[in-house]
Amino acid sequence: MSAPTSAPASAPTSAPTSAHVIADAAEALAVAKRFGAQLAEGDAERDAERRLPHAEVAALAASGLLGLTVPRSFGGAGLGARDLGEVFVELAEGDSSVGQVPQNHYFFVDVVHHVGTLEQQRFFYGEVLAGRHFANALSERGSKTAWEYDIRFERQPDGRYLVDGVKHYGTGTPFAPWIPIYATDRSEDPDGRLVAAWVEASDPGVTVQDDWIGMGQRTTGSGTVRFEGVLVDADRVMPAGRMFEQAETFGAFGNFLHAAIDVGIAWAALRDATELVRTVARPWPEFGAPSAAQDPLITQEVGDLVLRTRAAHALLREAGAAIDAARADLTEESAGEASLAVAAARAAADTAAVSVSSDVFALVGTRSAAKPLNLDRHWRNARTHTLHDPRRSKLQHLGRHALLDVYPPANGWV
């Protein structure tokens, strides 16, 4: 395995000078299917060698698949959540690490939509359509909860903001021209207000470290980002906290994309395992089947794994439709129903990804454990990615609503 490195940030090689602009949902899905199939060809090798997908992310940006939710009024396809979920499933089935990179990107495109000024929307939508995409630097270590941000963020006399501190798990930062952060702005509000600030990866004082060494999702580029006296123009800062002062679908949307990644992992595990059943597995001699693919016990187990995956995928589609419906007529009830639908999809996708990627080994037998096959990457990816948002929290929200008629809170996490 190549060792993680630490190097100052520079203009990423993955930033294209231009990108294709996709017209509609049908084109988006067709492009995603082709791109996902191409990703699958090198997925096992990239994971085994921990080779960061600079070229693959550059191709993803150039393909137009990172500009899908830019509104039609700004020149984009204006894709809804349900259609975007299908795109994510295709990408994650091809390579779940590459498929996770756009999750943070679309998370922040949604921030622009909700709280960006018209001028900010024009600028950042233009950046997105040109293929200059967003990573993220949200998480910090040492704070009481994951919702608290201690990074220094202070308004300067010239109107700019000083950013100084360290962020962790910065998924996609080695590839992206823009690194949005969350911070607490106490310059104008003693209680602090949540803001999102867009930092250019090439800004002086920004250092991206390739030090993510997780057992799964190994090539997401989820390392440490250091900000040393970085100055950010005021027009690159947005009041993210305003999103949670009323009914919102922002949190549901972010979780929905995570669920789509998990569904893609489950399908990828099934794809690889069934191919091994057809090509290398042997039937159990006791039952006299002519091939493993005709062994009734294997057939039964495959059917059960397909059922789990199809059920999770169906709940994902239902959740996407609920988000789209809430966006069209936003009320506390419609937002709550979207959050519940996403909670169900997220919990089901978690179960499907982890269990299917584990149970596929029994279909193939001992050969499936051979290291060169790298079949275990699907379980490692599923187990790692599902830690983002515990399944138990989703079950709590579903149970509370069933028993007490209480919707999940509007906090950006559900």
TrEMBL record:
Single GO biological process annotation from the record: L-leucine catabolic process
Keyword field: Oxidoreductase
Pfam families xref list: Acyl-CoA_dh_2, Acyl-CoA_dh_N
Residue ranges occupied by any Acyl-CoA dehydrogenase C-terminal domain in the UniProt entry: 257-388
Domain named Acyl-CoA dehydrogenase/oxidase N-terminal: residues: 36-131
GO molecular function terms noted in the UniProt entry: 3-methylbutanoyl-CoA dehydrogenase activity; flavin adenine dinucleotide binding
InterPro entries associated with the record: Acyl-CoA_DH_C (IPR013107), Acyl-CoA_Oxase/DH_mid-dom_sf (IPR046373), AcylCo_DH-like_C (IPR036250), AcylCoA_DH/ox_N (IPR013786), AcylCoA_DH/ox_N_sf (IPR037069), AcylCoA_DH/oxidase_NM_dom_sf (IPR009100), S04_starv_induced_SfnB (IPR023922)
Gene3D superfamilies: Acyl-CoA dehydrogenase/oxidase, N-terminal domain (1.10.540.10), Butyryl-CoA Dehydrogenase, subunit A, domain 2 (2.40.110.10), Butyryl-CoA Dehydrogenase, subunit A, domain 3 (1.20.140.10)
Cross-referenced SUPFAM superfamilies: Acyl-CoA dehydrogenase C-terminal domain-like (SSF47203), Acyl-CoA dehydrogenase NM domain-like (SSF56645)
Protein name in the entry: SfnB family sulfur acquisition oxidoreductase
Gene source species: Kineococcus rhizosphaerae
